[in-house]
Amino acid sequence: MSVIEKISSEEILDSRGIPTLKTTVTLSNGIIGEACVPGGTSTGTNEALELRDGDPNRFNGNGVLKAVENVVGPIQSSLKGTDSDDQEKIDRTMISLDGTPNKSKLGANAILSVSLAVAVSTAANQKLQLFEYLRGLTKISTGFAVPTPMVNLIEGGKHANSGLDFQEFLVIPTGFMTAKEKLNAVGEVISKLEVSLKRNGLDGKLGQEGGFAARFTSNEKAIDFLKKVLEETFKASFFSIGIDVAASTFYQNGKYKITDIENPLVANDLLDFYKKLQESYNIFSFEDLFEEDFDSWKLAKQKLSPASILIADDFTVTNVDLLRKIIADDSIDGVIVKPNQIGTLTETLDFIEEAIENKLKIIISHRAGETMDTFISDLAVAVNADFLKAGCPLQKERLAKYNRLAEIESYLENKQ
Ligand code: PGA
Ligand code: ZN
């Protein structure tokens, strides 16, 4: 056992050039743990609050100096001397110190940075790999499984100035065995995609998650292009396509407006469009296919082929109470898990446990604004997640997370 001796924190920049926190926990024996918090661009309305300074003279109000002060001030005072092994007690202490339903007093960014840094320091103190330590905080008793990457190669929505409405066009290397084979296969696809985009005059900028911000004139054209590149590179059965629609970003006055169809669509018509995409391109996963509208999700589950999975992100926001409500409807097949949507490791693990009990697919995810922190890769292995969604490896903050998966895989192989 070791107790928390010191908690320090500083403002750093994320991959978008927007401030975030890097927090360091020092234990009484000198062991340290660090964690950097990510930030979302298309955030769900029910996410815990990311505390920003609001000072227009610094980063358009996006500074996090108040959150840093909350870490080194009240949070440090309340946790100093606490046994670092007791993650749940530490997280619950911060939750009650904050006292608000959405962590708006101290900031979910401030609280999460401490929560994760405590786990990192304790893993080091117990001489465990982070994923091994995190496994001990779960009820899972099976062996470790390394998740399959879900890789965002073409970007739209709020993440890119590409004119595409859908936020992410993802490839999923489902036909390969090991994480290394999967990542190499993704690398081959990226090379081919880059050449094909250039040949068609569609190359240029990258989006926030490192995928191509290619200016296709419709969402379907982007999917069609991706499908052709996949087929030129590998046998069709080796890769699947997924889309994160992030539909709330193009929802206005009760309708959805996409470039594929001239007039704005009601939910039912948008669902028909998804059905057409599913049939033409064998879409494996649909994320956030509607805004927060229970009836449309339920209808989608009935109308779309069960070969696809429907994934909730903005709808469930890593919040176990919201998840329980939605599970009752039997309208989703999987959930996105983003620790910063809820603000502590303990609550993130509660959410995952509930999802596992209900046989939902688990997709651990990064955010649009990232750092080199690879905590989510360890978390994904710790909970035997089905997928890790960490953007396009052309951006180093994303590559680091996939590389950590491969590193964990090697570690597990060498242990056998
Ligand atoms: P965000 O994007 O980090 O901007 O929320 C990721 C996602 O929607 O999955
Ligand atoms: Zn999403």
Automatic annotation (TrEMBL):
Cofactor note: Binds a second Mg(2+) ion via substrate during catalysis. Mg(2+) is required for catalysis and for stabilizing the dimer.
Annotated compartments: Cytoplasm; Secreted; Cell surface
Pathway per the UniProt entry: Carbohydrate degradation; glycolysis; pyruvate from D-glyceraldehyde 3-phosphate: step 4/5
Listed GO CC annotations: cell surface; extracellular region; phosphopyruvate hydratase complex
Residues annotated as binding Mg(2+): D244, E287, D313
Any Pfam family the entry gives: Enolase_N
Domain Enolase C-terminal TIM barrel: 143-416
Keywords per UniProt: Cytoplasm, Glycolysis, Lyase, Magnesium, Metal-binding, Pyruvate, Secreted
GO molecular function: magnesium ion binding; phosphopyruvate hydratase activity
Predominant location category: cytoplasm
Active-site residues, as the UniProt record annotates them: E209 (proton donor), K338 (proton acceptor)
Enzyme class: lyase
InterPro entries (alphabetical): Enolase, Enolase-like_C_sf, Enolase-like_N, Enolase_C, Enolase_CS, Enolase_N
Superkingdom in the source lineage: Bacteria
GO BP annotations, alphabetical order: glycolytic process
Domain Enolase N-terminal: 4-134
EC numbers, comma separated: 4.2.1.11
Record SMART domains: Enolase_C (SM01192), Enolase_N (SM01193)
Catalytic reactions of this protein: (2R)-2-phosphoglycerate = phosphoenolpyruvate + H2O
Residues annotated as binding (2R)-2-phosphoglycerate: Q167, K338, R367, K389
Cofactor(s) this protein requires: Mg(2+)
Family statement: Belongs to the enolase family.
General function of this protein: Catalyzes the reversible conversion of 2-phosphoglycerate (2-PG) into phosphoenolpyruvate (PEP). It is essential for the degradation of carbohydrates via glycolysis.
Protein name: Enolase
